[in-house]
Design goal:
Strand content: 5-15%
Helix content: 40-55%
Number of helices: 12
């Protein structure tokens, strides 16, 4: 007879069995391909309370049980000014998934709310800085964020459509203001649709955007643009089911020789400079 499993055991089993190809395998692929974890790391797994970060936290817990690499994790929850309802929901889910949260509070939402120009930009910068600072205080050398494959390809298209440049988020990066710290994105190869499917399969419900500024203003411009980009990709996918994979693979196969210009280390190289340099 199959032994009775607790709900937590069923959730974890769904990752290792039913969603092994969709969640567990791409999670490991990102970690190995981009060398995200090293021996002796102490990683602050940053929890927002949304589906992406909570799924990432559970994947990290399971990885620690099976990995040959010795590393430590701190599941770091920054409260930027959540409502009590949001706090309760996050803690309820963390309890269900047995994710031990290390919490700290900030006034980021309140500060960003006073800005008439680019409150979302300020909020993002402050949140990142606060996470780095707290993680370092806790003796961590890395922070892990839950950005997934769709975040990467949507950012690529948004940068082209709205910023007249071609850039995206990368699997890991060094902090400019915290030189001893590194940011990693272990969900980089995981599709958002597969995270949603895992949530639905396990009847899991996580918080959506909890930003008071966005709620008051009926979504920020950036959120609206991202939504438009999601709809565009979904429409293209109807005729080309591999459109997401193709865009993602293209990020790993940039042919600089075919571009009329590019920027590296803050220096813009134009076509004539590149073209004339080929003759030397």
């Amino acid at each position: 007879m199959t032994r009775n499993l607790t709900r937590l055991q069923m959730i974890e089993r769904s990752i290792s069995k039913k969603f092994r190809k969709e969640l567990w395998a791409p999670f490991l692929t990102a970690i190995n391909r981009y060398k995200l974890i090293d021996e002796g790391d102490r990683i602050a797994v940053c929890i927002s309370g949304g589906k992406d970060s909570m799924c990432m936290a559970k994947l990290f817990q399971m990885l620690m049980r099976h990995s040959d690499i010795h590393f430590e994790t701190v599941f770091l929850l920054m409260d930027p000014g959540y409502s009590q309802t949001t706090r309760d929901k996050i803690k309820e889910n963390a309890s269900l998934l047995e994710i031990p949260l290390t919490e700290f509070k900030t006034q980021i939402f309140a500060i960003a709310d006073t800005q008439s120009k680019s409150p979302c930009y300020l909020c993002a910068r402050m949140r990142r800085g606060s996470l780095y600072a707290k993680a370092r205080e806790l003796s961590c050398n890395k922070i892990a964020l839950g950005h997934h494959l769709n975040d990467a390809i949507e950012t690529t298209l948004m940068s082209m459509f709205y910023s007249s440049k071609l850039e995206t988020i990368i699997p890991k990066s060094h902090s400019e203001n915290f030189p001893d710290m590194e940011l990693i994105r272990p969900m980089y190869c995981v599709k958002e649709a597969d995270i949603n499917a895992w949530c639905a399969y396990n009847d899991l419900s996580f918080i959506q955007c909890a930003c008071s500024v966005s709620a008051r203003n009926n979504d920020s411009p950036n959120a609206s643009k991202r939504h438009e980009t999601k709809l565009l990709i979904a429409e293209l996918k109807k005729n080309n089911p591999e459109i997401e994979e193709n865009i993602f693979r293209s990020l790993h196969a940039v042919y600089l020789d075919s571009f009329p210009g590019y920027k590296k280390d803050g220096i813009l190289h134009n076509f004539n400079e590149i073209y004339e340099g080929k003759d030397k």
